[in-house]
Amino acid sequence: MHELSLMAELIKLVSEDAHHRGIIKVSKIDVIVGDLSNVLPEALEEAFVYLRPRVEAPFDEKTELHIIREEARAECRSCGTEFVPDYRIAFCPVCRLPTSELQSGETFRVESYEGCDEDGN
After folding, report:
1. What CA–CA distance (Å, rounded) separates 32 from 109?
2. Residue 47 belongs to what domain range?
3. What does the alpha-carbon distance between residue 111 and residue 41 come to, in Å, rounded to a whole number?
4. Has this prediction a pTM greater than 0.70?
5. Based on C-alpha coordinates, what's the Rg of the chain?
6. CATH code, domain with 57
7. Does residue 22 lie within any of the structural domains?
8. At the N or C end, where does the chain have fewer CB atoms within 10 A?
9. pLDDT averaged per 10 residues, the chain (length 121)
């Protein structure tokens, strides 16, 4: 389950950025997970639940993970048809050529996080 190592790295990145910005408590993390990113949202959630109590501040048991799903979209470069592909390499459902280009669905990133500083802001 590579989601455990992905989540560990995500927590590290957010922790470092929060520290740099003077944030002492992170209350919520928004993560975008594309349908073709090879990241399983359910496994990512389990990894977060497992790691959350094992890391130091700025995380605690109340820190939430919000996963935003990004639908896979592709466009055929030959005929211009837009469609939802099943795989990264997909045949156009109209002209049946393998000339499609992914427009979305591969993303895995922290979209944002919320927290407060020493003053409670």
Report:
1. 5
2. 3-71+106-116
3. 15
4. yes
5. 18
6. 3.30.2320.50
7. yes
8. C
9. 92 95 95 96 97 90 96 96 92 93 96 85 59
